[in-house]
Amino acid sequence: MKKLFLAMLICLLTAGFVYAAEKGTAKEAQDMVNKAISYFKANGKDKAFAAINDPKGQFVKKDLYVYVFDFNYVCLAHGANKALIGKNLKELKDTNGKQFMKALVDNAQAKGKGWEDYQWTNPVTKKIEAKSTYYTKEGSYVFCCGIYK
To answer: Which residues of 75-107 are buried (b: 16+ CB within 10 A; e: fewer)?
Structure first.
């Protein structure tokens, strides 16, 4: 009986780890940004940003999370790292020296939507990984969600 219980416990723990390490897709990232924008339009800035900031909420899934910037490069909402909220991240660089937040916000202003590539810490694996973030401009905000490659 102990062996059966131990085997079941190992299976449950392993299944949880496999699920947690599952990577989101480009389509899922785009869908999450679109869902966040729809929620923002329906509920307003305060309620939307609070929902995006909830690490157990509807805007965090697998290794995906939504975050929002204004055109001054200030983080207004972040599903994976609340410590970034309120900070100007224009000068933030990835491990290759790329000012990716400046590029992301500037490209959103110029193009409206698209993808930006850089290196970033995956909140699930805690390792620096190649990341591509989908962004969409909505009013004076940039809604983002990235995938780890």
So the answer is: bbbbbbeeebbeeebeebebeeeebbbeebbbb
